[in-house]
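Cross-check.
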Amino acid sequence: TGIRAVAERCTALTSLNLGRCVQLTDTGIREVAERCTALISFKLKGCKGLTAEGKTKVKSLMLLTKVETDD
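Predicted model, tokenized:
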């Protein structure tokens, strides 16, 4: 998937805005969380395919200081 390619090739990202990516799922979020460990800011507002499990995975990133979701 597209997000997998980003996660594999851009591991040093510190900021990522995936807001309104309605096809983004927990699987895609897992890819980002496992590979983009330098993320400080992650915007996910409007990503209707995410569940609480996916959002929890994002919040487990050690350096993350800013997360924007719908809840």
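The first strand starts at residue 15 and ends at 17. The first helix runs from residue 2 to 9. Passed to J.P. for a second look.
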